[in-house]
Amino acid sequence: MSAGSQGAWLSLAAQRQAGVQAASSNCYSVSMTLEDIQQAIAKLSLEDRAKLRLWLAKFEAAQGERREPETTASKLGRLAGRAVADVRKRIRES
Questions:
Q1: What is the pLDDT along the chain (94 residues), one digit of tens a residue?
Q2: Which residues contact 10 (CB under 8 A, 6 or more apart)?
Q3: Residue 62's CB: how many other CB atoms inside 10 A?
């Protein structure tokens, strides 16, 4: 983290003063509103915002991998749609 963005993140002591409670697994959780997050992001350096964008892209891609597996009906529907489109294309070409 660059020196300019260090002010955007609270130190452990400051987090404790802000009411952060230690979980039994020694993890800390901070209850932040969207507004708090937006303000913290606004204080980040350009370099750190670029890192954040990269992390968000990876995070969202991983979330997409958790989709339900394709059902047989949806797969057949997709294949049927392709077949119909192919038939229409061949009719136009002839």
A1: 554 444 444 455 455 555 544 444 455 567 889 999 999 999 999 999 999 999 998 888 888 766 666 788 888 888 888 888 888 888 998 8
A2: 18, 30
A3: 9
CA distance 40 to 17: 18
Q: Which residues, 6+ apart, have CB-to-CB distance to 34 below 8 Å?
A: none
Is 5 in a helix, a strand, or coil?
helix
Q: DSSP assignment of 29-50, as one string?
A: E----HHHHHHHHHTS-HHHHH
CA distance 34 to 15: 17
pTM of the predicted model as reported, rounded to 2 decimal places: 0.39
**CA-to-CA distance for 10 and 16, rounded, in angstroms?**
10
